[in-house]
Amino acid sequence: MFTQFKYWKPFVGPFDPCKPIRVKSYSTPPQLYMNFQPPGLPQFTPQEALMAGTLWPQLYSPYPDPQKGGNPHG
Amino acid sequence: MAKQMPPEYYQCLEEIQALDFVLVELNLYLDTHNHDFDAIQQFNETAKLSMQLKVEFEKKFHPLMNFGRSYSNYPWNIDDSPWPWQV
Amino acid sequence: MFYYEKKLQYPVRVSTCNPMLAKFLIEQYGGADGELAAALRYMNQRYTIPDKVIGLLNDIAMEEFSHLEMIATMIYKLTKDATPEQMVAAGIGDHYVNHDKALFYHNAAGVPWTASYIQAKGDPIADLYEDIAAEEKARATYQWLIDISDDPDINDGLRFLREREVVHSMRFREAVEILKDEQNQKKFF
Ligand SMILES: [Fe+2]
Predict the structure, then answer these.
(1) How many domains is chain A built from?
(2) Does A52 touch chain B if contact means CB atoms closer than 8 Å?
(3) Which of B30-44, B71-85, C139-153, C160-174 has the lowest average pLDDT?
(4) What is the DSSP string of C149-183?
(5) Domain limits for position C33
(6) Chain A residue at shortest CA distance from C144
(7) Residue C106 pairs with which residues in a beta bridge?
(8) Domain assignment of residue B78, yes or no
């Protein structure tokens, strides 16, 4: 199983002017892990698919990071 | 075309948008999976449903397509209804 | 030929009159990684790409035009009834003096769209790798737009558009797999 966000800790220097963001993240959406979509994947209903932006839950990529409570870079 | 569209318009439109979205997704998928029989069957069935909804929508509200893909009422009502960026 | 269908791909809603957001969104209208660039790139590459993937480029190009219309709708609604004073306060006085409320193909910094944003190399792998990169860059732009927008309805539309870039990237990756497949060679030689 893959995760859709990766985290890293940038160097924090004593002379950085802004309040440091100690953990930064970037997006690693599902298409990076699916070489070729296999047939017969489970589907959303048409209404759900429209709202999600894809027919297949396995290609759904939430943004901002749900783990971060909607705070994209924190 | 100062008239407002009723709430039913938005509801019918969204039903069509949902089915047509499934068609876009299946279409792109089939472009790279042209032997997926089940997906083709689902595509054809969804296309039929979408066409049925559009016939109903056009009877109630306005023609959807130009250049003869939809019928017009009298007077010419293909332009006489709000545009997608207006509604 | 092309037919127009009088509906958006997705129900676009806008909560508040906010011309400043329009200034940012125009990046995806006339910017380097925007929807116009995407639509024109694929539409043009389709002529010389191998037959097996023409359909995909054609269909994604079509969908990109639907996205261009969605972005245009957001920008139109965000500025429609804004006063000149509001336009100035939002930092788009420079747009207003040149275009009034009219949309124009430029990016968030006002740089007009140019064909040098896109390429058609004629080499299918080079072209498809450009297309994959373009989708990832458009996805990233939508992320940064969502980050700075506080309009929940606009964000709903932007999330849809970001997800579409994910799916397009998936399909272009599959197109590369189709073109590099050794098995197909056996059928022909
Ligand atoms: Fe795209």
Answers:
(1) 1
(2) no
(3) B71-85
(4) ---HHHHHHHHHHHHHHHHHHHHHHHHHHHHH-SH
(5) 19-108+119-161
(6) A72
(7) C112
(8) no
Minimal-distance CA residue of chain A relative to B29 = A37
Inter-chain CB proximity C163 and A52 less than 8 Å: yes
Kindly report, residue by residue over A31-66, the tens digit of the pLDDT: 999 999 999 999 999 999 999 999 999 999 999 998
Note down the domain range covering A10: 5-68
Instruction: Indicate whether B44 belongs to any domain.
Output: yes
Distance in angstroms (rounded) separating the CA atoms of residues C71 and C152: 15
Residue given tokens 């802004």 in the structure block: A18
Within-domain flag for A74: no
Residue C82 lies in a domain: yes
ipTM of this predicted structure: 0.95
On whether residue C177 sits in a domain, the answer given is no
Q: For position C53, which CATH number holds?
A: 1.20.1260.10
Q: Which two tokens stand for residue A7?
A: 């985290």
Nearest-by-Cβ selection for B85 from C3, C5, C76? C76
pLDDT at C188: 41
The per-residue pLDDT for range C97-124, each reduced to its tens digit, is 999 999 999 999 999 999 999 999 999 9
Pair C75, C67: CB distance under 8 Å: no
- For residue A6, the surrounding DSSP H or E stretch is strand A5-8
In a domain, C181, yes or no: no
Structural domains in chain C (count): 1
Label residue C187 by pLDDT band (50, 70, 90): very low
Q: B48 and chain A: CB distance < 8 Å anywhere?
A: no
The continuous run of DSSP H or E covering A8 comes out as strand A5-8
| Total domains present in chain B | 1
Residue B74 counted as domain residue? no
pTM of the model: 0.95
Residue appearing with tokens 């989708």: C135
Q: What is the mean pLDDT of chain A?
A: 92
Interface test with A, best of C66, C159, C165 (most A CBs within 10 A): C159
